[in-house]
Amino acid sequence: MKPLKFEPLLKSTIWGGNKIIAFKHLDIKQEKVGESWEISGVPGNESIVADGEMKGKKLNEVVAELKENFLGAENYKRFGNEFPLLIKFIDANTDLSIQVHPNDEIAKKQGKERGKTEMWYALPSEPDAKLYNGLKMQITPEQYKEMVENDTITDALAQYNVKEDDCFFIPAGRIHAIGTGCFVAEIQQTSDVTYRIYDFKRKDKDGNYRQLHTKEAAECIDYTVLPDYRQNYTPAKNQGVSMVQCPYFTTAVYDLDEPMTLDYSELDSFVILIGLKGEAKITDNEGNEITLQGGESIVVPASTQTLKVEGTLKFLETYV
Predict the structure, then answer these.
(1) What span is annotated as the signal peptide, if there is one (predicted)?
(2) How many other C-beta atoms can be found within 10 angstroms of the C-beta atom of residue 167?
């Protein structure tokens, strides 16, 4: 079967900006769009197939119908009818909350389905865009609680100026936040578990402070300090450049200006392609054709053997 496109789920937020609609070439009006959920199997927020024979079906219905032919044999054993990755574009006009996510083990102890490990890939952001990722100094759990109470927790965090093509890996347990001016693609486990540590004393539209999860977060935090939290890689044309490999996803970036065939014959997984810039025609081994441009995402079924990409296109490739 051919690769699938899905309808984006656009979410307006108190911190949302104005980049996503233009980036996705959408002819609609919607204010403060902070997120576009591109590929989602999260219950209540499931992606809907945009066209073709499967048009109108939810992503998890597609998985239930096609099983291992869509997910891959090992993935289907591991995840059943649930799609294991969530793909978003995120545009922050103001700082998001300082937060952390539990790992799978802690999440289950806390009554959640699973934890959340994720990564960010920076799209064209504002010149002064910044984010927080990880601790820059050693602190204890007691110091963490004191710093949250004293509004000084950001003093303990590694802060980065963000430029296009930067990549950051955020394993479960790492404190992080997307800052003002950032525009990123996010790849993560299918989970919406977020523990808000600090929210800059902001109030919602009703004048209330948003709920913090200081206690739950304290159970999750990894206090390890690293010298650098960026994923360092060397960009290259017309080949895949590996950026992240972890138990939950493997991600590479491609920057093509000549035809290239991607060989998935030995891969037992679906593949997601996330368009960043440009446009290309993509043809699978059965002759099915689909176009992919910047701002779009497609899911390639696990049964696909090869994809020929023709055009000028920069994209992310991720699979489990």
Answers:
(1) none
(2) 20
SS3 187: strand
Identity of residue 46: E
Torsional class of 107: left (φ above 0), alpha (ψ -120 to 50), beta (otherwise): alpha
Pairing of strands 4-7, 98-100: unpaired
Write the pLDDT tens digit of every residue in 156-204: 999 999 999 999 999 999 999 999 999 999 999 999 899 999 998 888 7
- Is 25 labelled a binding residue? no
| Residue 118, annotated as binding a ligand | yes
Tally of CB atoms within 10 A around 70: 23
- Is residue 279 annotated as involved in ligand binding? no
Calpha distance 91→169 (Å, rounded): 18
CA–CA distances in Å: residue 313 to residues 137, 220, 247, 258, 295:
40, 39, 28, 9, 11
- Residues tagged active-site: 196
- What does the alpha-carbon distance between residue 232 and residue 304 come to, in Å, rounded to a whole number? 31
How many whole angstroms separate alpha carbon 263 and alpha carbon 256?
15
Q: Note the pTM of the prediction, 2 decimals.
A: 0.96
* DSSP at 123: -
